[in-house]
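Researcher: Here's a chain I'd like modeled. Treat it as a single chain, no partners, no ligands.
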Amino acid sequence: MVKPIDENAGRANINILWRFSSVFRLKAGGLIMLNITNESRVLQGPWTTLVKGRGLGANTEKFDPVKSSYIKEIFRIVDQSTVKSIPYNKFSKELCNFILDFNNPAIPFFQRKELHPRIDLVIASLKKIDDPYQYFLASAILFESFGKLGLDPHLWINKQIDLAEDALIQLQNLPAANEQECYKALEAHGNLFLGIAHIGLVDKLTKGNIDYVLQAFNIARGLQDVWHKGRGIAAFLTVLGLVGLGHYATRPDHNHLKDLVLYMNSSLEDKERVEKRPNEYVFSILLMINCIGVLDDLKYLEYKRDWIKVSNELLDILPLALKAIFSHYCLSTLDNLGLIHRYTNNTKACLQRLTESLMASGGGELDYMAYTYCVDIAHKLKLVDAIPDLLTDKLVENIATLYDFKNGVAPTNLFYRSGFMRTAYALTALSQMGKIDRIFETKSTESKSLVARLIANHIENWDESDDSFTTLNHALIDLSLSQRGSSVAPSVIDENVVIHKEKNQVKVKYLSRPEKSKISLHAYFPGMNSRRSYVNISRDLYEKGNQQVRAIFDKSSEILAEYGGLGGADVSRFFFEDTLPDDDVCEKWNCIGSSMTVYNLALFEHLKTSTSDFFINSVGGESYGVITAAIASNALSLGDGLKIANSALGIIYKHAHLNEFGKWHIVSLVGRSISQDLQEIKRIFPEGIDVFRWQTLSHEKEEVHVYINHRILNEIKEFIEESFGNTISFIEFKRPTIEIIHSPKLAPARIAISNFMIDENILFSRPDIPILANNGTGIASSADDVRNLILDMTNIPMYSAQSFQSFEEMVPADTDAIVELGYGKKTQSFIYEHGIRQPFFEYFGDDHKLQCTINNIKCIKGSMEPECLSDKYQSSSKSCHV
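Model: Modeled as a single isolated chain. Structure tokens:
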């Protein structure tokens, strides 16, 4: 069990203004575990920390005097070179010394009078940095460090000095004459914003004489190339989300996130450049996906393209080392989004295969970076045991290569092969593995340690323009700051971070019924599979319905009249009194879909307003019925819901017709072990058979509905007869069609519907009551859940059987009965075949018969005498038609 241990025993008391809490450690067995913060998860990886200097000390652990001595020893080694005199290095050393002493429980001298001189030394070293970009970065790191140490800003921000204000003012002096300068200026803004957020002064960014966020966006206009614009804007928007200014990214007057997605979409049209430089695109796209998650605007994951799918396709064509590096970003982002299970069945095995391939590859020049990324993601995913001990040896072996750049013996890119860079990455990985001592190894044939040899080798090839030493500075500050303990001044950034994995794990808070005497209902809406039952249905619901019901019809006809097409504004469209022409297939299906939606909503309203005995506690829908469920639960307004209902089928079938998928047979496969047998069938026929609905999963039978392509129908049928005999029943139960749904072939149509939702500004809200999902995800309880539930009816099978198999686990525990609101009698089979205990009834708006159902259900509940059961109810077991 994780147990907090107070490490501050014996330390002098420190004013609560300066330090907010005691230090704790996490310990599991003999392994010291990192405390992975939300900030660390979102800022993602070693590149951000080591090269960009962001998120330093995000992962925390207890103070380690041995590691502290290693950090100081590395600075001593660096001081033997010309880097000693560089102001940025001096600042980093002064800051590290301060942090290490501050974190050290054995040094009890930090009282108010002793803090000021030490802080003054750090600030003095900061002010000597003459490179403007390094000055802004150092300022940001200083703010972040003091914030994470819990130092009250009033200790070092006063009338005489306001470093934050000074740095912000100087941002205006940065040049932005070309794209490179614009990129560096935007990066400086992002760094400073993060640092200032850590000391709680975010208001300075937007509420003074200058709005520095708008200033940064103005600079961003100078970015054009994918490598600068894609990465730069994605990273900056992520910063805005982290500091609590995410609303700037998606303002109604200028949606920068949408602009970024549109830009990346258009950039992929240059296929030749994408093939030549896939790393630039995959990096930008993965940062954009991460940004979408941070800003909590997940609809953009499928705007114009399925961006996760695109990133995976690009990952596949990268060289091995780069694939490992960017797989870290991909896995980290998917984990944050709570989607990792959709893209890999076994993340641990995936990580193991990646590391094994790396170690067997022969040792590329960037392998040290790849190894570090593998170690880092293993910690973030809690899969540390997926990293073999041999990786440590491979890492040390890879970084130990000494280059002779002056004589052209090594590649010319000094930055990535820099001794400082290799040391920085190795420190990060070895520290996480608890083997930091490996970098101080001295071979029997050498007089210097590995780290000393690396730095000396680099200095021999020194280039005045090389600033790779900053990566080592950042690694050392990161290690120093991480030793403050897991509960000392947790990052304020964490409060602004949305980790969807954790958000999705929050238990749904169901509405409680207002009175015990009321009947708590789960309302279920049929889908397009019931459409033939709606032909020429009675107008009584409209003619004899109450005012609220008539309002549903009238308001819906006004909304749909705006879209034109079939049906028009006449309410007769909702009763399917006229035969619809086949001239425009898409318009025909849109009219059917929207009209069924309106009719079923009217039934729902009629049920709610006809009696006070019912309380609707949850809803569900079969396929297209989820749109009705979304409106009924108030996750969608009537107007937005009808926009979707009047467009989605048309988009789907337009795609099916244009792409000539061919004719598909609709077949039911029934047996005792269909879920297992189907795997063998699909192994033999990987193409030409798609599951679109799981109908039944019980001890007695399993039934699945599939599409089978016309060209292989007989072949599959013969294979099933020969291989499975009479253990599988093969029944073609509908006419062949080209108009398929719930098929992976319709993935592009899903993107088209997603585009439609965004372009039409359709707004999803958290449903007032939970929606039982039939896409295999359980309960839809958030706006994003509902949006995905509707999109999933395009290309994801209906997991109806699984939903009803787990029905009682998902709906509120006090559910008394299930009602199907609409025609078709499709729900009844799900109820009976999966042993649902609740009574079930169908509702068609008959007030006279409604009381029969109410009495019958109350009898089941035991709140009325048994003689209340009507003959009709007794003869129909657990169902009653109303």
